[in-house]
Write a structure and sequence with these properties.
- It is a single chain.
- The protein starts with a strand and ends in a 7-residue tail after the last helix.
- Helix 4 crosses helix 10.
- The chain is globular, with a radius of gyration of 18 Å.
- It has ten helices and 13 strands.
- It has a six-stranded mixed β-sheet.
- It folds into two domains: 122 residues, D-Maltodextrin-Binding Protein, domain 2, CATH 3.40.190.10; 115 residues, 3-Layer(aba) Sandwich (D-Maltodextrin-Binding Protein, domain 2).
- The chain has 263 residues and is α/β, with parallel strands linked by helices.
């Protein structure tokens, strides 16, 4: 098999993208040197489902909604960022820095930004936070899909929307690399925690290679401490699909309150 690899999830700035690519290259140099690093030019769902995928990073929500049948878990990064605890993370709910919103309740009937409909951090965790406040399955006045967390932040800064839930790791990277954008928003709440974005491999990757990848991830982390600091990487945990059931729990608690989708 001619393997491919990609780390597409936290390329917030070109400098971060270069660091992630260099980190991945070090992992592959040890674990599978003939693997080709690819950009996520196709849709992420298509990338994650490729039989020749050696390693990539996905979101926990699609993982529990069918992707787990096509991939196996390698590891979950542990990040040094506000809102992270070991392999778990949460979303910071933000609004415009000079705007009138100061609580979740005050955002009733306003415009919400959504990075992707299948995002745990941008949709599922926010849906769970809003569910107790919803009435007959509704809360917001308008839902705007932006395509990314940075896009959601920009929409808030430009007064195109009023509120969004941002992956706390992304928010930390924005504070590091895009400070003007970070200063344009203000925190009003946090979501519940759930397992962070896992590194996965195709089910066609054998068990010994998965173990080699786990070792190579830690070796690449230790090889360049300055890079690890820029990537806010502290280590890796090995989680199970049962751990990721926490994401489904958040979904089910919202559904029990009659709040099936952001609306």
């Amino acid at each position: 098999m001619n393997w491919i690899a990609s780390l597409p999830m936290y390329n917030v700035t070109p400098a971060l993208a270069a660091d992630w690519r260099a980190f991945l290259a070090d992992v592959l140099h040890e674990a599978a040197p003939l693997t080709r690093i690819v950009e996520a030019g196709e849709t992420l769902d298509m990338l994650w489902r490729r039989a020749d995928l050696l390693i990539s990073q996905t979101c926990g929500y699609p993982l529990i909604h069918g992707l787990h049948e096509r991939v196996q878990l390698i590891a979950t990064p542990e990040f040094d960022a506000p809102g992270c605890a070991g392999p778990n993370y949460s979303s910071v709910i933000v609004t415009r820095a000079d705007g009138p919103v100061h609580s979740l309740e005050a955002s009733r009937g306003l415009r919400v930004a959504l990075n992707q409909p299948d995002s745990n951090s941008g949709m599922n965790a926010l849906r769970h936070a809003i569910a107790p406040l919803s009435r007959e399955g509704a809360f917001f006045g308008e839902v705007v899909v932006t395509g990314s967390h940075v896009g959601s932040l920009a929409a808030i800064a430009e007064d195109r929307v009023d509120i969004a839930a941002i992956d706390c790791v992304t928010m930390a990277f924005v504070r590091d690399g895009l400070p003007r954008l970070a200063q344009a928003v203000r925190e009003i709440a946090w979501t519940q925690v759930s397992p962070g974005l896992p590194l996965v491999a195709s089910n066609d990757v054998d068990a010994s290679t998965v173990e080699t990848l786990r070792s190579a991830l830690n070796d690449a982390l230790r090889a360049d401490p300055a890079r690890a600091k820029r990537l806010r990487l502290k280590g890796f945990s090995t989680l199970s699909l049962m751990d990721y059931a926490r994401i489904e729990q958040l979904e089910n608690e919202a559904l029990e309150r009659g709040y099936a989708r952001l609306a």
